[in-house]
Structure formats: C-alpha cells, structure tokens
From TrEMBL:
Annotated EamA domain residues: 30-168, 184-319
Organism: Pararhodobacter oceanensis
Taxon lineage: Bacteria, Pseudomonadati, Pseudomonadota, Alphaproteobacteria, Rhodobacterales
Keyword Membrane: yes
Keyword set, alphabetical order: Cell membrane, Membrane, Transmembrane, Transmembrane helix
Name of the protein in question: EamA family transporter
Localization of this protein: Cell membrane
A single Gene Ontology CC term: plasma membrane
Annotated membrane topology: Multi-pass membrane protein
Pfam families attached to this UniProt entry: EamA (PF00892)
Membrane-spanning intervals of the chain: 31-51, 57-78, 98-118, 124-145, 152-169, 175-199, 211-232, 244-265, 277-295, 301-319
Length: 322
C-alpha cells in the first residue's frame, strides 16, 4: 500500500464538519433576524395608516388579548417552547407575577405611545427613533445590571445614534439645535424609553422561563394594563364599523409583529450572540422606507440618505462583533 493510501486510511475525511454545521445554523439565525426586522418594521407603516381610525389603547388591548391566546397555545403544543426545552407552562413560570406586571406595563406603554405618536409622526422618522433603543437600553443595562460595552459595541451605538439623529431632524442643524422634534415623535420617544427599560429588565427578571413563555405572560399582563388604561375606549369603539384596514393591521400586529417576531428572535438567540441579534434593530428605517414605497406612501427625500448610511454602518459594526 502506497504512502498516500496509508494516509487516507489513517485519516478518513470527517463525515460531519462541526464548523460547517455551526456556520449553517448562524446563517439561519441571521435569516430569522432579517425576517424579524422586516416584520417589526411593517407595524410602523400600517400603524400610521390606521392610527386615527382606532384609539391606541383599544388597538393595543385587542392585540395583547389575541397574542396571549395564540402564544399560550404555542407554548402548550410546540415542543421546545417551554422551560428547559420542553413544552407547556410550569408552576415556576408563574412565580413572582409582579415581574410580568412591570414588564406588561412597559410593553403596553410602549405600544400605546407608539400608535399615539404615529397619528402625526412620519413612519421613517419614527423608525429612526426606534434605532436609539440599543443606546438607551445600554444605559439602563449599566445602571441596573452593571453591563459593560465593548469598544466595537460603543462605536456601533454612537454611529447608529448619529444616523438616527440625522434622519429624525432631516439633516437640519437649526431643527436639531432647537430640538424641533414634533409632538408625534416626542410622544413616541417616550415610548422608546419604556421599550429600552423593558430590555434589561427582561433579562434581570428572567428565572429560567423561555422567550415564548415570557412574551405570552407579558402579553397576558398587557391585557390588564392596557385595558385598565383604555377601558372607556374599548367600550366606545364600534368594532363593526371600523375600516377593514384596521383588522388587517390588527392581524398583522398579532401574527407577524408579535407571534412570528417572538419566535424568530427566540430561534436566532439560540444561534447568534446577543450583539448580532440586537444589530438588526438598525435595519428598521430601511425596511420602513421599503414598506412605505410598496404601500404607495410618501418617503423622505435624499436628505436622509447620510443618516440611513450611518445606521447601516452601525449594523455592519455590530455584525462583526463577537
């Protein structure tokens, strides 16, 4: 037997390449987050189109009610959706229910303020405000959990914030200096602060619950929070007289912006580092522009292009982050 033949016999080619398998799983995680960012972005465009047809409290309460039902069914039926990779709820999931009340208050508050702001705010500018979430969340993370930042993470947050500010103020230095944010964006910014606080508390409050269990119970708490705030709106809403687009939007918010998004993020979080999962937040304004064009709505001019490029640059920096 020749030397090459001896070498082949001694060192057979591996039947399974772990590195290749990990690469494939990472690509699937990126695909999930790409779909996640597109689904979340659609809620801005559709929300702006129906914001004056139904009150934010009524829309948010209905969304949480339907989302809680569907997510509870998924937890009960889908393997791997519960604690320790099992399915179904456990008594431990319901421990310290005040956690879900706090998270539900922040989550419901974010959505109510989002749709309140979209009554007058431009969806693309609102999407740019949303990209400030990682920066604000990093501040809350340091205050509450003493979470630090790597250099590349800090650079990405800075670049992304600069891009967001450019889009929000449309490159107008006078508007920036005068902080001419506009009522709608100002309202939505308060919602973004609530959402940013929600992120570190979600991690700090977790006691082993899966992402699907957590969002199901947070949605359940959100029903009571939003309902307590807007029960008058619920009773006053003539649900049969609402335009069909409101029901299309509600279905979208429940099925894609909540149920699908929670599933996609849970899937991606098992395959990607947290920084890469967070990176896709920065695609929101880009997706919103695509949504606005596809729906035949007006979009900002080329003046916002430098800001969009900065935001995409922040995405690329975070995607390099290990």
């Amino acid at each position: 037997m020749s030397a090459p033949e001896l070498q082949t016999a001694a060192d057979p080619a591996p039947a399974h390449d772990p590195a290749l398998s990990l690469r494939r799983e990472a690509l699937r995680g990126h695909a999930a987050m790409l779909a996640f960012s597109a689904a979340v972005s659609g809620s801005f465009s559709l929300g702006a189109m129906v914001a004056n047809d139904i009150t934010p409290a009524a829309l948010t309460t209905a969304r949480f009610l339907l989302s809680a039902i569907i997510l509870a069914l998924l937890v009960a039926l889908v393997p791997g959706s519960g604690r320790l990779g099992r399915r179904g709820f456990t008594p431990a999931d319901f421990g310290a229910p005040w956690r879900y009340a706090v998270l539900g208050m922040l989550y419901a508050g974010y959505f109510v303020l989002m749709f309140e702001g979209l009554k007058t705010a431009n969806p693309v500018a609102a999407g740019a405000v949303f990209t400030l979430t990682p920066l604000i969340a990093a501040g809350f993370g340091w205050l509450l959990l003493r979470q630090g930042l790597t250099r590349s993470m800090a650079a990405a947050l800075t670049v992304g914030a600069l891009g967001a500010v450019w889009v929000i103020f449309r490159g107008d230095l006078q508007a920036l200096l005068g902080f001419e944010l506009g009522l709608g964006l100002g309202i939505y910014f308060l919602g973004v602060v609530l959402h940013a606080l929600y992120a570190p508390l979600l991690k700090g409050f977790n006691r082993g619950e899966s992402a699907m269990v957590t969002i199901a119970l947070v949605s359940l708490a959100g029903i009571f929070v939003a309902g307590a705030y807007g029960w008058r709106d619920l009773l006053a809403t003539d649900w049969r007289a609402l335009p069909p687009l409101v029901y299309v939007t509600l279905a979208y918010l429940v099925l894609l912006a909540t149920v699908f998004s929670a599933s996609a993020m849970q899937y991606a979080a098992q395959r990607l580092p947290a920084s890469k999962v967070m990176a896709y937040t920065y695609l929101t304004p880009v997706w919103i522009i695509i949504w606005e064009l596809s729906l035949g709505n007006a979009v900002p001019g080329v003046i916002v292009l430098p800001g969009i490029l900065l935001i995409v640059g922040a995405l690329l920096i975070l995607l390099r982050e290990d």
